[in-house]
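Possible regression after last week's pipeline update?

I re-ran a chain I had predicted before the update to compare outputs. Posting the input and the new output here so someone can diff against the archived version. Not blocking, just want to make sure nothing changed silently.
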Amino acid sequence: MLRYIPELMDKGSSVSILFTEESGSDSPLLYCEMIQKARYGESFQVRSQGCKVGAYVLGENSTSPEDYYFGSGRYENRPAAKRAVSSLSRLEKRAGSMKITPYTGRNFNILILFLKPERAMRLIHAYTFARGDHIEMRTGGIASVCSDCTAYPAQGAPGISLGCKGSRKHSGYADDELVVGIPFDIAAEIDRALSKIPETFE
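New output (post-update):
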């Protein structure tokens, strides 16, 4: 069970994402909305959610959100929107469901946290503690919770995002919070390092 990573959160609980072969419901809620609700105690088991971008990123379908992004005014032209979509990290076609719950110590694939910048800095320091490897922050200001902090960490590295218009608008996390996703395979290493690195203001 992780001890130190969950303590980085100022409000609510870190959120566990587990991909399972079990059946689940079709939820009208957006993925980022369910993550926020799980942060404050709710649990979900879903095979699909209500966001078109999330459906593409989380492997529910292969329908590109290029038209949506171009139509939203986020990009000056269609080639820019197409390039932005092609740069998104996404899961392969996914069967089964996602179990989204507050972290309780059980197994997970991805752990999502909402952190103040100083807390995120400590997590980065903990990741680099053993090997000195830097974290590559990969974000385009879109699909922050689903792509930057779920699909990208599923490839084995932490994901850190400044957020996106959609998730901040629909799920309401604070302006001074960053989103972080940690894959299961490196979580224990980061947790151990957090017990060893110096405090920020020592």
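Follow-up from reviewer: compared with the archived run. Strands lie at 15-20, 25-26, 44-48, 97-102, 110-115, 159-161, 178-183. Marking as no regression found.
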